[in-house]
Every structure is written in C-alpha cells, then in structure tokens.
Amino acid sequence: MAREKWASKLGFMLAAMGSAVGLGNIWRFSYVAGENGGGAFLILYLGFVFLIGIPVLLAEFSIGRQGQSDVVGSYKELAPNKPWYLAGFMGIASSFLILGFYSVVAGWSLYYFWNYINGSFWTIPDAGYGATFEGLISNTTTPLFWHGLFMVLTILVVLTGIKKGIEKASKVFMPTLAVLLVLLAIYSVTLEGAGEGLRFLFQPNWAKIDSGVILAALGQAFFSLSLGMGAMMTYGSYLPKSESLPSATVGIGIMDTVFAIVAGIVIFPAVYAFDISASSGPPLVFITLPGIFAQMPFGSIVGLLFFFLLSIAALSSAISILEVPVAYFMRRFKWSRRFSSIFIGVIMYFLGVVVSLGFGVWSGVTPIGDLGILDSMDYVASNILLPLGGLAIALFVGWQWSVKEALSASDMTNLGVRYVWLGIIKFLAPIFIVLIFLQSIGIIG
Ligand code: VAL
C-alpha cells in the first residue's frame, strides 16, 4: 500500500502547528514557568526555542521527509546498518510516557468543558475552584472516565487516517483559540494586581537560575515544539519531497512560542489577582482560569468556549503523539491503521490510569525524588528523552549526512543562513544539550 500523504502543504502546516500548540503552551508552560521563577525562565526558554528548537525542528522534518518512514524506519532507511534507529525507539518510548499523562490532563479539560455546559462552574463552587479541582483529580473514577473519553477521541482521529482526520481537525479551531487567548489576555491585564503578575513573567530575576531551571527551560522548549520524539519526523514523512521546509518550520516555531507567551499573560496576572501560588504545579491553570471566567462579563460562555478549544488543541497534539508508535507498528508488523491505533491507544489509556491514580490513592508514590507519578514521567520524557532525541537528530543531520545532503534535504541550499543553521546543528545544539545534561547531573558547576 502506498504511504499516505498530506493533501496540501497547508494541511501539513496546520497539522504540525496543531501538534505544537496544545496543553504544553497553556497548561505546562504556565506551571513550569511558575515553578521556575518566571522571567528568567522565560528568557532561557525563548533562547532555547530560537537557538536550538527551531533549527533542530527543521532537521527533524528533513529526516522524516527524506526517509519517508516512521521514526525508526526513517533512520534505518537513511543509514542502514547503523545504530541511529535506536534514537527512534527512544522517541517511541517518549510518546508512551507523554501521551500517558497528556491524556489525563486533557481529560480534566474535557471535564471542565462539561461543567461549563451543565452550569456547575458558572458560579464559584462553595468549596472554591481550588478545592473542587483537588476533589476531582483525587477521585478514583471520574477522571478515568474523562481520560478514557479523550483517548477514544484521539484513537478515532488517528484511525481515520492521516488526511481526513488530522488535517480537518487542525484547520478549524486553532485561529479561534488564538483570538480567544488574546481577548483573555487583554481582560487579564486589567485585573487588580495584574502588574505584579506581568513583572513575574517578564522581569528576569537571575538569582533564580540554577541547573534545574535551565534543564526545565530546555525541556519546555522541546515539549512545546513536539520536538525530539519523532512526531514531527512522522508528519514530515507524509510530505512529498517537493515541498519547501524552512519557512514552514520558522512559522510553526514562532506561532507556538507566541501562544505560550499570550497564555502567560492570561495566567500570571490572575495568579496574583486571586492570590494563588505561582508554584502550584500542574493544577495552576485549572484553578486560575475559572476565577477569571467567574468575574468577567459572559464568563460562562467564555469558559465553555475556552475549555472546548483547549480540549481540541490537546486533541490535535495527542493525535501527533499517538501517530508516532502507530506509524511504526503499522510498518514493522504490517498491522492495519485501525488495529494499531486501538491497540496502542488502549495501552496508553492504562498508563494514564496509573497517572490519574497518582493524584488520589497513589498520591504517596514518588518514583523520582519527591516527584509524583505524572511529574516523574514528564521529567524522564521531557527533560531527558526529548533533548536526547534532539541530540540524535542534530548529530545525524550534522555528521551522518554530508553538508550537501543536509542542505538539500532541508531545502537550505540557496538560503543565506544555511551555514548558520548548519553550525547550530553540527556544533551549538549538541554542545548545549550535552553541557546542560552534564550540569544537571552535577558533573560541571
Ligand atoms: N507540543 C504539544 C504541546 O505542547 C504536545 C505534542 C506535547 O502540547
């Protein structure tokens, strides 16, 4: 059977943007920025996006488009009998870890959407939004239902195939989410105490920077760009060789970053206005946003729309994560798309069950240090596996390929910045990633 292809370059762009923009920009960006001191984290994150993220993203797309296969197959195709494909298995492992918790958080978002439909969240619940949220996530069954529903939706989109499902889902809702976020940001900065929130987000306090903050900023850049796990490689592989990559890559990177910053402008003023701790961790947006909606005009409708769009954004990201192992298993074991999506989706659902129980009956379980189950899986995937995946991508394009091959595979041959890009891919990105790792395990100071 011929491999599937995007219907158009626009379809590819929208799907790749749909992959990048998701819970990472709103939910994860805010709480990771909040936990890591705000302004200084933001600057590091921006630095990593532009210096490492976008250049490596171009490299990842190039490998996929050139290899015309999944994350393992593309490496094997391009460098047979070399161990590069092992990086592909790392990508598959990251996809399991990430979707395992991503779908749980997306389930929370669906639950909020439902509560704005049925009216329960229109007014502040007696216990307050904070305690209500804690009540939800520590419950054994409710979150599992919503997490399951989200996984079913994800599987359905993935099993309808690349063009029909993914392209259509990506096309409609992203611009609406962008407009809504900008409106919310405008409202949020008028809240009393907003100034302090904006200072937290934009005024760097360099004293806050340590190796943990640097690693967190790197991990956030990779997570948010869907980089290093093979999602973008797989999407790139559905692109015909005739389409040009650099402008699409830069567009996707900038757009993803703008979404995160605008989300920060929505969240942090409200964090200070409502006296919520910026370092509340994963619950942060779920306790902050309903507070904004409760006091703004037409807040119930805005809340309903917001959680609908957030769930859709999460869905268009989740399908790109599920696509990584699905594409691999389809090729490797000749499974149908239908069987592959369902089988892998179900395994991921059960991983998510563990994550969800980690907020309730298993809340005492801390696999890594004092990190709970979600945070531990996220740490391994985002701060370790994704940057390692990125390292492999950079080394592959920079050193396995000749200069000529690398430039032609990435459509950079005629661009003035080609040697800057190549310099980043060959030297700067690998060196940075290695140094950050060495620093975070305490080998260098
Ligand atoms: N990049 C997405 C996000 O930021 C996913 C695929 C991790 O939510």
TrEMBL record:
Keywords: Membrane, Transmembrane, Transmembrane helix, Transport. It is a multi-pass membrane protein. InterPro entries: Na/ntran_symport, SNS_sf, YocR/YhdH-like. It is found in: Membrane. It holds the Pfam family SNF. One of its GO terms (cellular component) is membrane. SUPFAM superfamilies: SNF-like. The chain crosses the membrane at residues 12-30, 42-63, 84-114, 144-160, 172-191, 211-236, 248-272, 292-318, 339-359, 379-399, 419-444. PANTHER family: TRANSPORTER (PTHR42948). This is Na+-dependent transporter. It comes from Pontibacillus marinus BH030004 = DSM 16465.
